[in-house]
């Protein structure tokens, strides 16, 4: 049976009148790349700090590898935290930064060097050991922080928005590298982010936080395809939430539904929907946005309501796009893509 790296039971934490964490239960498996995703203030950083031991819960229990650690100091826990600002020592070389935690633990010097160099190789920074942090790019500093965290092979690595300070291109590159590194070293990564794309790209599983609670835990596909609440549907990806009369008219049943924009095809109004299980609705294009690889249509439905549809630009060019505004269209989707949200 797979081991459990982290088990949180009924965690609560308030700061004065602010409830940061309002009853969190969570299990993270050994070797998982696990993301805690949510908007600013939803409590994810506080949960991370509780796991690290920088905060003490008001109530609840924290287990690491099956051992209760709730009252233990940070250094008594087999976890390491990587912060957004990297917190490197500016006066030390890269190698000294990476070897520092081993030095504190009185690992002999020769072994420290060997392990520091191995960790630097893992983050593809061979040959940078003698530089100082100021002589590195942002992405390289990020990797030094990772090497320093991994050198002691903690059971769990906690990462608090570690890519937040990087520009978009570098950030996307680091997402791929970080995921590859995690697979290579096999350490459990717990990654805090408010960026849903980042969480979807990197994670084995995601916990979506909403006001101090976990709204849903699942794989990226489960979270995206089967959101458990309207909040999850709209926070992760773009949503078309339908309820009341509009849902009834379009789906033919009561309840709250979500249809992802890329599941909706935009056809000519006169077009027949080609397969028997396609649902359709007609309307008028209120706005159309050319996005390069795709085009976004906002369509006002006959009878009320608005749907967003996203079409890959297979044939559409930028010149075509403006011409759609105000035109009549038929929207079509498979019934199964109108996903009912649990009430
Ligand atoms: P962000 O993405 O902005 O970091 P978050 O989801 O990580 O947000 P937390 O940092 O966990 O959210 O904060 C949750 C709530 O607790 C917020 O309302 C925040 O203001 C509050 N909070 C967190 N730490 C403290 C503190 N040390 N003192 C007072 N309030 C705090």
Describe this structure as you would to a colleague.
It holds the Pfam family ABC_tran. One of its GO terms (molecular function) is ATP binding. Keywords: ATP-binding, Nucleotide-binding, Transport. This protein has 343 residues and is an alpha+beta fold. It folds into 2 domains: 4-229, Rossmann fold, CATH 3.40.50; 241-341, OB fold (Dihydrolipoamide Acetyltransferase, E2P) (Beta Barrel). It is 28% helix and 32% strand. It has 10 helices and 18 strands. It has a 6-stranded mixed β-sheet, sandwiched between helices. A hairpin with a 2-residue loop joins β4 (59-64) and β5 (67-68). The chain is elongated and about 80 Å long. Bound molecules: adenosine-5'-triphosphate. Adenosine-5'-triphosphate binds next to β2 and α1.
Describe the secondary structure blueprint for this structure:
Elements: E1 4-15, E2 18-29, E3 33-37, H1 44-52, E4 59-64, E5 67-68, E6 79-82, H2 94-104, H3 109-122, H4 138-150, E7 156-160, H5 168-185, E8 188-193, H6 196-202, E9 205-210, E10 213-218, H7 220-225, H8 230-235, E11 241-242, H9 244-251, E12 257-258, E13 265-268, E14 278-290, E15 294-301, E16 306-312, H10 318-321, E17 328-334, E18 339-340
Parallel strand pairs: 3-8, 3-9, 6-7, 7-8
Antiparallel strand pairs: 1-2, 1-4, 4-5, 9-10, 11-12, 12-18, 13-17, 14-15, 14-17, 15-16
Helix pairs in contact: 2-3, 2-4, 3-4
The protein binds adenosine-5'-triphosphate.
Beta-strand residue percentage: 25-35%
Give the strand order of the largest sheet, numbering strands 1, 2, ... along the chain: 6-7-8-3-9-10
Number-wise, the strands total 18
By CATH's scheme, which homologous superfamily of the largest domain applies?
Answer: P-loop containing nucleotide triphosphate hydrolases
Count the DSSP helices.
Answer: 10
Structural class: alpha+beta
N- to C-terminal separation?
Answer: 34 Å
- State mean pLDDT (0 to 100 scale): 91
CATH class of the largest domain, named Alpha Beta
Q: Could you give the order of the helices and strands?
A: EEEHEEEHHHEHEHEEHHEHEEEEEHEE
Radius of gyration: 24 Å
* CATH architecture assignment name of the largest domain: 3-Layer(aba) Sandwich
Rough outline = elongated
Keywords: ATP-binding, Nucleotide-binding, Transport
Domain ABC transporter: 6-236
Protein name: Spermidine/putrescine ABC transporter ATP-binding protein
Organism: Streptomyces monashensis
């Amino acid at each position: 049976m797979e081991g459990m790296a982290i088990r949180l039971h009924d965690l609560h934490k308030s700061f004065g009148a602010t409830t940061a964490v309002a009853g969190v239960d969570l299990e993270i498996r050994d070797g998982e790349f696990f993301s805690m995703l949510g908007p600013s203030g939803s409590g994810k950083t506080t949960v991370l700090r509780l796991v690290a031991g920088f905060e003490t819960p008001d109530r609840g229990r924290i287990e690491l590898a099956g051992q209760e650690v709730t009252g233990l100091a940070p250094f008594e826990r087999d976890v390491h935290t990587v912060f957004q600002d990297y917190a490197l020592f500016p006066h030390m070389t890269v190698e000294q930064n990476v070897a520092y935690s081993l030095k504190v633990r009185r690992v002999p010097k020769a072994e420290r060097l060997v392990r520091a160099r191995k960790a630097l190789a893992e983050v593809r920074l061979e040959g940078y050991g003698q530089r100082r942090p100021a002589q590195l790019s942002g992405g390289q500093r990020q990797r030094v922080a990772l090497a320093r965290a991994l050198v002691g092979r903690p059971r769990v690595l906690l990462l608090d928005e570690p890519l937040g300070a990087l520009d978009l291109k570098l950030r996307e590159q680091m997402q791929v590298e970080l995921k590859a590194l995690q697979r290579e070293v096999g350490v459990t990564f717990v990654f805090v982010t408010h960026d849903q794309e980042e969480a979807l790209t990197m994670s084995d599983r995601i916990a979506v936080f909403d006001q101090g609670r976990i709204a849903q835990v699942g794989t990226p596909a489960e979270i995206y395809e089967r959101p458990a609440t309207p909040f999850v549907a709209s926070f992760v990806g773009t949503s078309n939430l339908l309820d009341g009369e509009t849902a009834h008219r379009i789906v033919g049943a009561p309840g709250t539904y979500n249809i992802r924009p890329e599941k909706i095809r935009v056809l000519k109004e006169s077009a027949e929907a080609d397969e028997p299980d396609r649902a359709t609705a007609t309307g008028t294009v209120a706005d159309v946005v050319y996005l390069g690889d795709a085009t976004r249509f906002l369509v006002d439905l006959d009878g009320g309501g608005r749907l967003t549809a996203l079409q890959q630009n297979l044939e559409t060019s930028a010149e075509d796009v403006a011409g759609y505004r105000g035109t009549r269209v038929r929207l079509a989707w498979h019934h199964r893509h109108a996903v009912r949200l649990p009430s």
